[in-house]
Design brief:
This protein has 179 residues and is of the alpha/beta class. The protein contains 7 helices and 6 strands. The chain has a 6-stranded parallel sheet, with helices on both faces. It starts with 7 loop residues before the first strand and ends with a helix. It binds magnesium ion (MG) and zinc ion (ZN). The site of zinc ion (ZN) has 5 residues, from loops.
């Protein structure tokens, strides 16, 4: 029996769920914004949750891939302890000049979620603080929500695709649930 496809919310990590500390390799410093847990709790019944993160510090030799993964796992574990399951964490370790398929805004990881987890992309959302996050949404046929936390305020003028612009993760979840 085919599993009914579910919509997802694809979450950027740095600047969206937590402060963007720049090439973070130390899990002890992975501290979520205070409103991240209460916001994500409001999504879990209706959406599958994923983290999609570009970690170019690995390609640049500034952090080890294993350490980037340990930070991701700390975030995932912290959320799980609060009752919020992340279906998968997708991490691109490349830099732009590598021309890889998996770095946002390329749609690779969204397509992977579609095939591996039966995600309905047209009913899905991407929340992030970089223009590449909402371009990733556009490339998937999903809706992009741009947050002004992290690097959001700094890059706001570079937005090239239609998206909602909100103050942070709690307002982004309000936006998702209003659709
Ligand atoms: Mg970010
Ligand atoms: Zn990549």
């Amino acid at each position: 029996m085919a599993r009914r496809s579910r919509p997802a919310v694809f979450l950027d990590r740095d600047g969206t769920l937590m402060e963007d500390l720049g090439y973070l390799g130390d899990p002890a410093r992975a501290v979520l914004f205070p409103d991240t847990v209460p916001a994500l709790r409001r999504l879990v019944e209706r959406f599958d949750l994923f983290i999609v993160t570009n970690q170019s510090g690995v390609a640049k030799g500034l952090i080890r891939y294993d350490d980037a993964c340990r930070v991701n796992e700390r975030v995932r574990d912290t959320l799980a302890a609060a009752g919020i399951q992340i279906r998968d964490v997708y991490c691109c370790p490349h830099q732009r000049s590598d021309g890889c398929a998996c770095r946002k805004p390329n749609p690779h990881f969204g397509r992977l979620a579609e095939s591996a987890h039966g995600i309905d992309l047209a009913g899905s959302f991407v929340i992030g603080d970089h223009p590449a996050d909402v371009e990733f949404a556009a490339n998937l046929g999903a809706r992009g929500i741009y947050v002004l936390t992290g690097h959001g305020a700094k890059h706001r003028d570079e937005l090239a695709v239609p998206c909602a612009v909100v103050s942070g993760i709690a307002a982004a979840v309000d936006e998702v649930l209003s659709r």
